[in-house]
Amino acid sequence: MSTILNATKRHKGQGSTLTKLRQSGAIPGVVYGYQMEPTSISLDARMFAKVLSEIGSKSVFQLDVEGKKINAVLNEVQRCALKGHVKHVDFKSINMSEELEVDIPVSVVGEAIGVKDGGFLLQPNRDIRIKVQPSEIPETIEIDVTNVAIGTSLYVGDIRQNYHFEILNEDDYTLVTITPPSAENVQEDETVDGTPEVIEATGQNTAEPRE
Question: Per the record, where are the segments of Polar residues compositional bias (predicted)?
Answer without folding.
Answer: 202-211
